[in-house]
Write a structure and sequence with these properties.
Blueprint lengths: L1 H29 L6 H6 L9 H13 L15 H14 L4 H16 L3
Helix pairs in contact: 3-5, 4-5
Length: about 120
């Protein structure tokens, strides 16, 4: 009588572990990411003559410099006017160069326009 109970317990433990692992991986893959320059280009949201390298650099500043201190904010969380003020204020606090701040703002405004 002890062996069937032990087997049943092991099967239930395995199923529970598999369920938790599936739930975790499902959540991880279901999350959207901050859009890349390539994704923005594919969505057709780039302004005419936009520099994809500036978008890449701006996104890099967002995910490295900005996220070093707080959560990542989605580009569409703020209006263009709000992003201008935020980048101006935070560029000083984060010691960003003028080029870094310009690339960051360009990325945020472009990605925000795409609704992402």
């Amino acid at each position: 009588m002890r062996k069937p109970f032990l087997r049943m317990t092991m099967v239930l433990a395995f199923l529970a572990a598999a369920g938790v692992a599936g739930w975790i991986s499902g959540c991880a893959t279901g999350k959207a990411s901050i859009p890349t320059a390539e994704e923005l280009g594919a969505a057709g949201t780039l302004p005419r003559g936009a520099d994809p390298d500036a978008l890449r650099r701006g996104r890099a500043v967002l995910v490295t410099e900005c996220a070093a201190c707080h959560r990542l904010f989605w580009p569409n969380e703020y209006s263009p006017a709000q992003w201008r003020a935020i980048v101006k204020r935070m560029a000083r606090r984060a010691s960003l160069s003028g080029d870094q701040a310009a690339d960051l703002l360009f990325y945020l405004l472009t990605a925000g326009r795409s609704g992402r």
